[in-house]
Fold these 3 entries.
Entry 1:
Amino acid sequence: MSGLLARSRYDSLPVPTQLFWSRAGILPRMLEPQFGAIFAESSCIRRKQLYLCVHCHGQRISNEGNYFMCGISGYLDLDRGVDIGILRRMTDVIRHRGPDDEGYALIGPGGTSFFGGNDTVKGLEVPPLETAVGTASFLGFGHRRLSILDLSVGGHQPMYLPERDITLIYNGELYNYMELRAQLEALGYTFHTTSDTEVLLYAYCEWGEDCLTQFNGMWGFALWDGQENKLFCARDRLGAKPFHYWRQGNRIMFGSELKQLCQDGAVQRRFDTSYLAANLIYHISDYNDQTLIEGMKTLRPGHKLVVQLGAGHNTIDSFTISSYWTLHVHYDNSKTEAEWVRLVTEEFSRSCRWRMRSDAPLGALLSGGLDSSCMVTEMCSQMEDPSRLQTFTTSYPGNNSCDEWFFADLINRSCGCTGNQILPDAEDIEKRFENLVWHVEGSCGLSLLGSKFLLDEINRRGYKVILNGQCGDELMLGYERYYAFFFASLIKRKQWKTLVSEFRQASRHSKLSVRDLAAYALYFNQPVVRDSRQLHRAGRFINPDLLDQRNRVELRELLYPKILENLQYTELTATQLTHIVRYDDRLYMSASIESRIPFMDYQFVELCCRIPPEYKIKNGYTKYLMRQAFDRRMPREVTWRTNKMGFGAPVTQWGRRFSRDYLLAYIEDCRTEKYFKKEALAQMVTRNQAEPSIYEFLAVELFARQFDVS
């Protein structure tokens, strides 16, 4: 018999049988000559040493590392069993997340069976899902795979360990999978693919639910443990990957996107008005477990969900959501500036290195701002040939308010990487905006059209792995509003001399004048004024009844912290970063692209949350410590630039490109009439078609129609 034989450490830990499908009695034809005889003898062995062939025609079964991003679907019904049609629709509607492969698992009292679909990877011959009609199953998994480089059977999901009766669907990446693999091998585990999915499975076998504390990465996964009769789901610490769910009695649906939960026509869909109000008034989302649709929840970052079934699989004994990680913002005053610079440099380098683990061509979004420039500079320093790194920058020539190509090109030339200047256009803008709303699943502004255009163009050019610089501002106090809280902290500590010096220098080293800084300091330290201003803006086009639906107590605590530590904590865990990464995940996956974010490495985040604010805002500069770390590594025009722009777009011009008749038609015949002031919106269109409120309304109206929500 050709190939090597591998022996597992425990008799309950065989090779993951996404390759074998022993419970279903199905073997891929390409593997039958080598595996058939073995499984005839050993597929039901319990307490014997198990030997399995892990080579196929002399070649190791591999998926070339952890190069798969995906979408997951789950359907549990203990009363009526799995509805195959709904599970299929839930998985098909997110094909954009994984157009390269699909797989299904149906779990019932008799074991686990596996099925495929039109996109199932070639060479893995499993029956189509439609043949499972009538199968007695209480739990169904669906999976969509985006292949970054290699499309082998080694990366197919659901992945299954028969002797431990574990079935897994997984969306994400473990960036420390190589380190974990070595640790598990030292404990006696034998690996048969190079997939991080297999690492996750064996980590669960070794540490149970505590495996989450071992992972550094991003994930949303669901794991059925047949021995313990439980469904174990989890989301990464900072919420880079999504996980939505809905429950009614003994029935649960879950998936990567909200639209999956809308595939059952029998489920009533009404707006969660408290969430909608907060979203429209304060422009925040994902600040708790609510979504725009009442009853449909999101598993919060850093949380796990465990569903314990009764012995007969006919009751849910417990449905438990709990936190497995908590971020602490607690400043450490024991280190010098030089020590902090060294630690930040080392950890950021490690974070980038882990996220560059890929045989596929890497790309990076380069805005020309400090964060993405630091990231690209670090990436190039770790590459033998930096010219292989492709950077992508949206550019709007002639528009100085949002065109950063000059700064991005300085970095490209300094690092020796290959820059791509992308020029978004506004053709078919109505259709583009409708498509944008469908993917981001809710309220959004016109500026995201530039990001969507950019990512679609990157996909067209064949790149599937892109790093970006999100989260740098939240970690290093990069937004101008942080000045107000920093100044307040200096006042509280009676550091008057430092306050005067920092105030003066901030007016020189930011885009804010002395008057602007004073206004910021007053505004952001006056919650009543801030809230009144937001309500006044929203009240121009939103009905008072909806405004009153907001949860005042919860939002006051989140939006109006009294000290800098609390502000940084809430922005990282509720009001800012969670909002950003929802857009990040949906936009990248809409273009079938994997996003990697070095600044969101949880170890780097924990480090930055210990750095005292006087090293983050110093000499009037925001993100001072990061500037110091890269002072001699980048052009000073970028390292010490003060005209922060963000990832902007010419939204005024784009707003004027919409057809007036198109806008007025949606306003006149709006499904969301009870939430908005129709006459006020129509007047806005007539007076100033670029008014942002128009497109906030339009996004909600489109969402209501696309997702059949009232």
Entry 2:
Amino acid sequence: MNEVKKQIAEALSKSNRAPAKATAPAPENSSGEDNYIYSSAGKYISTETGVYLIKPDRDGTEKTIRVTHQRLDVIAIGRTAKNQGYSSLLEWEDIDGNTHQEIISQADLEGEAKDVRRMLADGGLRLKSKSGSIDYLIDYLRSCAPDRRFIIVDRLGWHKNKDGKLFFALKDKVIGQSQEEIIFNSTAPDEALPALEVSGTAEEWRDNVANLCNYSTRATLGVCMAFAAPMARLLDVPTFGIHLKGKTSRGKSTVACIASSVYGRFSSYKKSWQGTQTGMEGLAYNYNDLLLPLDEISNIDPKDVSNVIYAIGNEVDKNRGAKNGLNRTTKTWREVVLSTGEETVTEMLRKANLKAQAGLEVRMPSINAQATDDEEMGVNESFPAGYNAQSYKELLEGNCKKYHGAVFERWIEFLITLDPDNLREEYTRFRDSFIQEYRPTNQNRRIANNFAFVAFAGELATGAGLTGWEMERETSGHSWAREAVGICFKSALDIIGNGLPIEDKKALEHIETLLLENRSNFLNGAIGSSFAPSPCWGYRLLVGAPTVGEVFYIPPTIFAKNFCAVMGEKETAQLLKKYGLLETEAGRLKKRMQFSNDNTAENHRKPYYAVRQFSTSDLIERLTKQAD
């Protein structure tokens, strides 16, 4: 036996672990050794000193070729739950003795060999530089077929095992039972994945964070949203968000901090609104089945915000093609989004002269961060004895730094124990009761369903002993979770308008604002005058019964150009007529008028849209009372 064979034999005898088994039985004329891995090129062996290929030489003797300078083993073969994406789990030691494990797909072994070589080299594996060694390396990796098997998941959150039972995959563990080994393998860098950190115990978090939410309905809402996120898939609740809107230093970030403490430390768990649609789709995928806190909506370009909200709500990426021209696997997600900002989405778009679709406020309704009329209170209705807004904020944020993350794992463990059918029945009863109490319009029913879902999650977590909140309040007879979320829902209705469809509200607010800001551009039709403002938008007259106020007479061309940004000309006129805000003639939406200061009239009446002065908020209040 030559010196190389002696080195291999010595390395084998010193090795305390066997390499992967051979893919085929040893040939009849072999020595019977079972540590070899056979291929058409010869037989490979992995030892502490490297991977070697032993192959017949031209003269019939065995020739030994060194492929690597350190051990490299394929220790398991994996696949996705859909029996696709077959991959190998590689293990090796780098030049400093550190153990590395990486998953490489079988498809990658059929691709560019240099990419595989680069990945191994980056992990500190010394490779032979001799021509042909890379081909032997790929041949070796292809030939390894160990008995150990595992399931690959590239998405955090809920998955099912062979028996259809749920388990929850985290980066470093699985909550729940799976008959097969589970390995999390994401293409996203670690910094893009949610930082699920644990500090303290679930009981410490309950006593020092959740209990302090009794002084703030907004903080309670945030915690309930955090508990709701992993339940959305279980109860088939589509992805939605709630936007916390208010001036700076009102406590919006504190609410997001408290909500994030269910999962980890706010500074590392939160994300920013800043990014492209593609980037935000990737973010949504990474936060699957979790709360996604997006801080400060002003960080995103107004032109992109609508597309991003719809993209996250659609729960699926665009399935852009792979480099090889084939469609790659579609990525899907489910989550709850907690957004913050100084303006609502609609206000933000209006400032940028962009149209806001009605579906935006359904997918992400806004609530006022300020909980009372007192600005100094911010998101709080009250404070613990001896605290003010600043000291209470410091207490909460300090406690969130000390205690976070442990309650999330406890919550998932609890959810796994629940019977899915019973859970759905309980939720349906709770949701129907919530809807009956608040009686939203059909337009706002989906929004009400989402708030009911959030309240149900908070009440369920309270029943599981995770929050320390009351299960039955004297003030309402409901749990604190339901009472607090209900108060926040009323705030959303105040912004959206409960008796007014969202699209109608936007159109009316646009018209109301234009009339108020451009009153000086309308001539007083009761006073003869040759002076005309520039631009001149028409005439105004003060009228009496049935409602005292001004009527603005707007020529059709001016009306269509300036007042129909949300709807078309005819639809806008019909909308005004529907709510009694348009004076008309029989069979017409326009009204013919002649004004004394119209020097071109010459006893000729012209058609105008006669719009009554109005207040959208007063109209909403009137419609709400009618609904009651």
Entry 3:
Amino acid sequence: MSNRTRLSVTIAAILACAAHSTASAQTSETQSLQELRNTVINLLDGLVKRGVITREQAEQMVADAQSKAETDAKAKADVDAAEKDAVRVTYVPQIVRDEISKQVRAELKPEVTKEVLAQAKEEKWGVPGALPDWVSGMQLFGDIRLREERYDQEMPTVPSDCGLGPDFCVLDYQAINEAGGIAVNDLSSIYRNITTERVRTRVRLRAGLKAQVSDGITAVVRLATGNPGDPVSTNQTLGQYGSRFDIAVDQAYLRFDAGAHSELPWMTVYGGRNPNPFVSTDLVWDADLNFDGVAGTWRLGFGGAGAEPSYAFITAGAFPLQEIELSTDDKWLYAGQLGVDWSWADRARFKFAAAYYYFENITGIRNPVLDSRVFDYTAPKFMQKGNTLFDIRNDNNTSTYLFALATEYHLANATAMLEVPMGSYKLFVTGDYVRNLGYDESQVLAIAAVDRTTDGRERSTGYQGEIGFGTARTGSRGDWRAYVAYKHLERDAVVDAFTDSDFNLGGTDAKGYVLRADWWFRNRAALSLRYISTKSIDAVPVNVDTAMLDINGSF
């Protein structure tokens, strides 16, 4: 390197230093800006006079120094502006540093733990080879209900032909059929209690498993408490000397959804022991009732401004009620329903459905000759109370009575449901009407139905209305809803085996009102209070007041 080159580098370094000092003059304690400037100018002037550098080179050095000084000044100004409110601490005690570390760990731990668990679940840490998709899609669900129940019964007037008194006025036809006739030495077993109040504690447990078998196909199995021979109640009455509960398969079905990943599946098909697939109330079907067989729903969406899809639908199903081993007259229910589910702005919703339920081979047939049992199978396997019955044994022997339904049941049913949001609350209005088109007055008169209160008059209609109000959503702490309803259900309007088991203690031939309030005191835990007051329509006059207090928990 030549002397001139070395000198040029030295001059550039001095000029850069001068520029830096200019940008940070306030931090210099040994030399003023003016002294440094004069020194540099004199040095450059001397070098030019001695011919070491040219005048142009000296001027270029000065220009470069000025440009760099401006750049450095601007950068420092930006840093100063950014750190304007900064507090500089030259020393932090160890105890303070330990406290800061502790707080940071406490704040980060939940978030980090959540992220790690989510990642472990997604990547299946510790699961060799990863589980199959159908195992990963399994889900447990269920609920438990504790109930304290009291009902009071009163007979305003006792008919003169009650014989031994009011407790011997109303026959229990289910008990008579199970006993094979009227046992004259044990009359108490074949008459209904219609005067004594009763208090009982009951529990209901339902637990199930849902599995995603493959795309669009779901398998569901659910177990429940209750009497396996009672299709409309899953309650288990406590106080049986510690006897274990009866547990039975309540649901077991496969479900296929076509277009399961879309907002509105266009088809849903059930097969097995299925939940109720129809839009309905407890006027026709009890809430605990399940259907054996197959059913399908087809949907057609249409435009709407609501947050949920609007659609028209058709539901159809075929359900075996009783398979008769030595006969082709198996008992069946065939059903179809046409309806619309329409939503509009603010999540308001209206449902309307018209259904036809056709029961086949459930009407009794009298045995043709004395002591014959050939048509005993036509008697129903289960009854509550209310329907018109007759004795099919044809032997004039009261100890061998066997009762069966006296008329056909072909039900026309119309159901309407309206939900209207009101801020964070919602108004509910429901109406339901049913008529038994299969009732044949001449048929009933011809077989001489046994119940003395039935003279062949047609009693084949039922209706109910309900109004409710409460929070728009339920299931969270503080949610609540209240309802009031009125029901009128004549004796042959529906099949008494399948209607609500709580209203009038089950069955038909009753009218009255229902009050209900639900309050969620914890997430997924609710208190429910219900009061039901009913009166007989045609049968022996009996008033029944029922009060129920429930504690419900779901998972």
